[in-house]
Write a structure and sequence with these properties.
Order of helices and strands: EHEHEHEHEHEEEEHEHHEE
Number of helices: 8
Strand order of the largest sheet: 2-1-3-4-5
Structural class: alpha/beta
CATH topology of the largest domain: Rossmann fold
Radius of gyration: 20 Å
Mean pLDDT: 83
Shape: elongated
Low-confidence stretches: 1-6
CATH architecture of the largest domain: 3-Layer(aba) Sandwich
Distance between the termini: 19 Å
CATH class of the largest domain: Alpha Beta
CATH superfamily of the largest domain: Response regulator
Strand content: 15-25%
Largest sheet: 5 strands, parallel
């Protein structure tokens, strides 16, 4: 995947036709994108709130709550990119979506490869607007929302919200930005504990407490200590 695209970006597919959703998920998966599926409008809003996806593919005609109302609520919550999926190709429908705040509009029947291409374009564009940082930092099983100071881990399909101190959160976010790279204690100390005259062993203490909290959620051996060098995030698969 090009470096300009968010790694492991999560796309929420809000589509009541299971076959269409499965096809889209397969094509998106081949491009390195993660997906979640909502079968109706209310489920779409619930998953948008809990998963904080990087982009939503939103069908207009859905049970319980139509796409226009879902889009309106998503826009009320923030600026998650939304691409509308619909069988309605009238100009008034396109204008309605764009007026409410859709980022793009795809008419059924569509070529799934074209949808993937549009998703990639919108993700790149939204990433540039945010200054290059994804809304939610994802590394393996970890999801870190720096704006809302919230961290979670996905284990066996379940999302566990982590109860972290401010320092533990900063350390986890720092490691997750480059999960395969070894971060020295000096680097972590300067980046995450800049105040006061903290010692390098203080980093060890904070990371030890973070590791215990992760183990309680089923994530073992993370962060991983590299003897004599520092730490890296052994992201769970």
């Amino acid at each position: 995947m090009p470096a300009t695209e968010p790694l492991n970006a999560l796309v929420l597919i809000a589509e009541d036709e299971t076959e269409i959703a499965e096809i889209l998920a397969a094509y998106l998966g081949r491009s390195g994108l993660r997906t979640a599926h909502a079968r109706d409008g209310r489920e779409a809003l619930a998953l948008h709130l809990s998963l904080k996806p990087d982009l939503v593919l939103l069908d207009v005609l859905m049970p319980r709550l139509d796409g226009w109302k879902v889009l309106s609520e998503i826009r009320h919550r923030g600026q998650t990119p939304v691409i509308m999926l619909t069988a309605m190709d009238q100009d008034i429908d396109k204008l309605t979506g764009l007026r409410i705040g859709a980022d793009d509009y795809v008419v059924k029947p569509f070529n799934p490869a074209e949808v993937v291409a549009r998703v990639q374009v919108v993700l790149r564009r939204s990433r540039l607007v945010r200054g290059g940082a994804p809304a939610v930092l994802r590394a393996g099983a970890f999801e870190i929302d720096r704006e809302n100071h919230e961290a979670a881990v996905i284990v066996d399909g379940r999302r566990h919200l982590l109860n972290l101190t401010a320092t533990e959160f900063r350390l986890l976010a720092c490691l997750a930005q480059a999960p395969r790279r070894v971060h020295s204690r000096e680097e972590l100390l300067a980046s995450c504990l800049p105040e006061g005259d903290a010692q390098e062993r203080t980093v060890d203490s904070h990371l030890s407490k973070l590791r215990r909290k992760l183990e309680a959620c089923g994530v073992m051996g993370s962060p991983h200590s590299i003897r004599g060098v520092g730490y890296r995030l052994a992201a769970a698969e």
